[in-house]
Each structure stands twice: as structure tokens, then as C-alpha cells.
From TrEMBL, chain A:
This is 3-oxoacid CoA-transferase subunit B. Belongs to the 3-oxoacid CoA-transferase subunit B family. It comes from the Bacteria. It comes from Paracoccus marinaquae. NCBIfam families: pcaJ_scoB_fam (TIGR02428). Transmembrane segments: none annotated.
From TrEMBL, chain B:
This is CoA transferase subunit A. Coiled coil: none annotated. PANTHER family: ACETATE COA-TRANSFERASE SUBUNIT ALPHA, KETOACID-COENZYME A TRANSFERASE. Keywords: Transferase. It comes from the Bacteria. The lineage of its organism: Bacteria, Pseudomonadati, Pseudomonadota, Alphaproteobacteria, Rhodobacterales. One of its GO terms (molecular function) is transferase activity. InterPro entries: 3-oxoacid_CoA-transf_A (IPR012792), CoA_trans_fam_I (IPR004165).
Amino acid sequence: MPWDRNQMAARAAQELEDGMYVNLGIGIPTLVANYVGDKDITLQSENGMLGMGPFPFEGEEDPDLINAGKQTITELARTSYFDSATSFGMIRGGKIAAAILGAMEVAENGDLANWMIPGKLVKGMGGAMDLVAGVGRVVVVMDHTNKHGESKVLKECTLPLTGKGVVNRIITNLGVLDVVPGGLKIVETADGVTEDELRAATEATIVN
Amino acid sequence: MKKVYANADEALDGLLRDGMFISAGGFGLCGIPELLIDALVKSGVKDLTIASNNCGVDGFGLGKLLDTRQIRKMISSYVGENAEFMRQYLSGELELEFNPQGTLAERMRAGGCGIPGFYTKTGVGTVIADGKEVKNFDGQDYILERGIVADLSIVKAWKADDTGNLVFRKTARNFNPPAAMSGKICVAEVEEIVPRGSLDPDLIHLPGIYVHRIIQGQHEKRIEQRTTRKREEA
């Protein structure tokens, strides 16, 4: 059985180590916060906050306290606030240990596309280009194939890039792959998924 | 030194002209200069170029200036929340320059700090790098981005004293300090102007040197995505 959204998030949470400062993207990456367990992780929200807490209780929403997805959130005892230039200073400066984010396509050389589809409505890259260029480690969490059953793990991206050669690890519903010289290396497969099945769903070169 | 004005109309008096370049603070609808935006609408100033991370939503924030066709060009990182924006953009009425969010913030900060350009690895190898100088430092490519110096910046803070020292609240700080720094003239609207000496000098977020005019007023502070959890989950 391929992993579901929560199992992918739980697997991605294993990438995080005690003491890390981490930025989580929108979608499945947001769920990763539910699986960090006892690890001491500080979440960054790139609109200007370290130490992001959970959603507020009903009636306690504060319009001055939102995350990068514009959702109301809460602060923690460790929280600090800062302006956008400082926020992206710590991102660009490599102080954020890891970013976990979704993608439309990833290529075997680590190229990432997740911000625009030509001909469709373009909303903008937000902070995605800064994050993938700056943070210590980029982990992509996404379905292995699109809704037409075509591989999203490619030899080359077809969509406009968010970053060139920026992805370190790909976690999909079928397994985990690392970007290494020459292509992708299978780290593990989802429970019940064989290596052959993973290879068959992957357009990118897989090296041993 | 008189920085405190009675209202937004008076604070913008003499500062506006068609075709001008404005830097605006705020992220989404959080920490946006609501009162100054309303005054811009009222003034009728047009052909504006505005550097702001977003462009409000339909009918609120900078979206109001779209409804009245006062904006010619936006410099933003994300504009997905606004149907009128997309309509004007797709019909060619509105120009749009996408900047990565951190690049936009740093362009504002740099412009305010007398730095006309800086090199960043954000956007290397993407469409953002098209036409920009590429320089290699220590084996890594970087692209040249320009500092922004705006004719006017409009920002929102929580508290100010009458000398323009500003304190922001939580994530409503966001783009406000860099936007303020990037303007030749900065007008700030705040929730409360407090007596000189009542803000702790060690806890000023933006020194008054960057702020030329101040108004106090009531803010709607609309929430874009109201997300909550149930009590029993605690």
C-alpha cells in the first residue's frame, strides 16, 4: 500500500532532528508538525516569526498573528517576531536547517518546479524561491505521479523552475529518494511497495 | 519637528502625484496601512507603481486601489487572493513584476540603507534571473538585484511616539520596517500615539528617523483565513 498523506508527513518528520529550526510549506508539509513527537523543533513562518504555535481556540483569533498561509495561529513561550527582511536574511543565510515543501515536479539533478503552470493563473512564488535557495536542506513531499498517472519525478522539469539543483530528498507516496551524482538513489520504499514498482513510476534515472 | 497629523488626508497632503512609486507594508491583510490606502483612494492619484508583497483582496486593502484603476504596476511576490487583480492583469490594464518575497524585502531594506544593488542566490537558474547580471562568488552563482527607493512609503504600526519611533505587534511587523526604510518620505498610521518617553528606547522596532508623518486611527484588521482548533483537542 502506498503511503497516505499522514504517513508521508510522518515519514518526513523523521528528517527532523532535535534543535532544528525548520520551515514547513503548505499542504502535506504542514501536517509534519503533528509527527515531531518529543523532538525540540522550532518552526519558522517566513512572514516574520520563529516558534509558531497551533491554531487558536475559537474566539481567540488575533488578526496580528498569522502564518505564511495567512491562517490565524498562536505563539509559544519561545516565540520571537521580526520583519520580513530579517526573516529572509535567516533563510538566505542558511540559518534555517531545513524546509519541507510540496512540488509539482522534481528532476534527477535536484531541480524543483512548484510555482507556476504556463497558461494557467499565476499567483506568484511567494517565499518559495528564497527558501529553496537558502535553507540547509530541502525535502520535497509530494505524490509520485500526477492525476493522469504520469511521473512527477523526472529527468528534467518541464515547468518553470523554483530553484536549480536545490532538492536533497524526495518523499512520495511510494517511497524515499535522494538526489545524488548521476540521478536518484532509492533510500526506502513505502510498506508493501516494491523497488520495481517505484522504478516503474519514476521517469528519472535511478542509480545504485 | 511636527510629525503628528490629524488624519490620513492631511498626512498625505502635498506628497502625491500621478505616476509616483509607493512602497507599502503588510503581509496579506495583516499589518496593512488601511487608513492611508483609503486616503489614496479618496485623493484620486493614479498611474501608481506599488511595491507590496500582496495586493489585498477584492474590495479591501490595496484591492480598493485596483477597483478605482489607480494602480498601473505592482511589484509583489504573491497576488493569488484577488479576482479583480487577475482580471486587470490578464486584460493588460495592469503591469506585474514578480519578486521572490525575500528579494522584495531586501530590495526595500537595501534601498533604504543606501545600497543600490546586492547579489543573491535566490532565483538563480529561474525566470527571475533573466536579464540580470550573474556573478560567481566562491564557486556559487548569484544574481544582481536592485535596491528600491520609493517616492513614498505607507506603513502600519501598533504604537508610535510623536517623534516617529515605532513599535509593531506580532506578525503585523512583516514588510512594514523595510517598506518604511525604502521611502524618501514615510507616512505611518498607528493604533495609538503615546507620550514621548513612554516607549522603552531598547524596545523600539523602527527608529523615528525613518518616519516623517504619523497618524492615529481605528483599524478594521480583517482576518483572511480564520483557522481555529476545538477546545477538547487541547
